[in-house]
Amino acid sequence: MSISNEAVTKLIEDGIPEANVTVSGDGYKYETTVISETFEGLSTLKRHQSVYAAVNSAITSGELHALTITAKTPAEA
User: Fold this and answer.
1) What would the DSSP string read from start to end of 15-48?
2) Residues 7-36 as b or e (16 or more Cβ within 10 Å = b)
3) CA 21 to CA 8: how far, in whole Å?
4) What is the pTM (predicted TM-score) of this model?
5) Exposure b/e, 43-71, CB count within 10 A at least 16 = b
6) Separation between Cα atoms, residue 6 and residue 30, nearest integer Å
7) Is the domain defined by 5-72 classed in CATH 3.30.300.90?
8) Among 55, 61, 41, 59, which residue's Cα sits nearest to residue 9?
9) C-beta separation of 55 from 36 below 8 A
10) Which of 1, 13, 49, 65 is in the most buried spot, having the most CB atoms within 10 Å?
11) CB 62 within 8 A of CB 55
12) pLDDT tens digits, residue range 6-62?
């Protein structure tokens, strides 16, 4: 059982409102780039934790197995 790229995108957008989110994946491994002003002043770890929190339901259900995250502020992008 896997999750669509669109569903992963929606989870992140719901968890981090106003974020610019792109997701690519093959049903097992996914990559995402999340650009949000909410990352301003946060460490890489804290940024990743906020993205993982947004997709946690898909991880715990087993739909999402591997997610590589790039998290930047608009200025960094």
Assistant:
1) HSTT-EEEEEE-SSEEEEEEE-GGGTT--HHHHH
2) ebbebbbebbeebebebebeeeebbbbbbb
3) 9
4) 0.94
5) eeeebbebbeebbeebeeeebbeebebbb
6) 11
7) yes
8) 55
9) no
10) 13
11) no
12) 999 999 999 999 999 999 998 889 999 999 999 999 999 999 999 999 999 999 999
**Cα 36–chain centre separation:** 11
- Kindly state the tokens that stand for 17: 């409102």
Which bin fits 8, alpha (ψ -120 to 50), beta or left (φ > 0)? alpha
Which of these, 57, 77, 75, lies nearest to 67 by C-alpha position? 57
Residue 47: both structure tokens together: 């940024």
Read off the amino acid at residue 55.
Answer: V
